[in-house]
Amino acid sequence: MSLRNFHIAFISVATLFFWGFAAWCLLVMGLPEMFKPMGWISIVFGFGMLIYGICFLKKTKSLIL
After folding, report:
1. Does 37 fall in a domain?
2. 5-53 pLDDT, tens digit each
3. Helix axes 35-60, 3-27, angle to 10 degrees
4. Which structural domain, as residue segments, surrounds residue 50?
5. Does any domain span residue 8?
6. 30 domain residue, yes or no
7. Cα–Cα distance between 44 and 6 in angstroms, integer?
8. How many angstroms separate the most distant Cα atoms in the chain?
9. pTM to 2 decimals?
10. Contact (Cβ atoms closer than 8 angstroms) between residue 39 and residue 21
11. What's the rounded Cα separation, in Å, for the pair 43 and 49?
């Protein structure tokens, strides 16, 4: 596995973890209120990782590996 492919896989997994944590924070009842802002921040970070992944793919598309 090339470093580029590993990077793409790592970005994908990190994005899914951010959104999974956000879903847990926002949908599970009975959690302390401090988890609500953490859930919204995780959503924002998940979209940030998605944008970063798209930019990374565009930048490295021309590389021959």
Report:
1. yes
2. 999 999 999 999 999 999 999 999 999 999 999 999 999 999 999 999 9
3. 160
4. 3-58
5. yes
6. yes
7. 23
8. 51
9. 0.85
10. yes
11. 10
* Dihedral Cα 19, 55, 6, 46, nearest 10 deg: -10
> Residue for token digits 């401090």?
34
Does 11 map to a domain? Answer: yes
**DSSP annotation of 13:** H
Please report, as a single letter, which amino acid is at residue 18. F
The pair of three-digit structure tokens given for residue 2, joined into one six-digit string: 């090339």
Are 18 and 46 in contact by the 8 Å Cβ rule? The answer is yes
Are 18 and 42 a contacting pair, CB within 8 Å?
yes
Overall domain count for the chain = 1
Distance between CA atoms of residues 36 and 42, nearest Å: 10
The angle formed by the CA atoms of residues 6, 24 and 49, to the nearest 5 degrees, is: 30
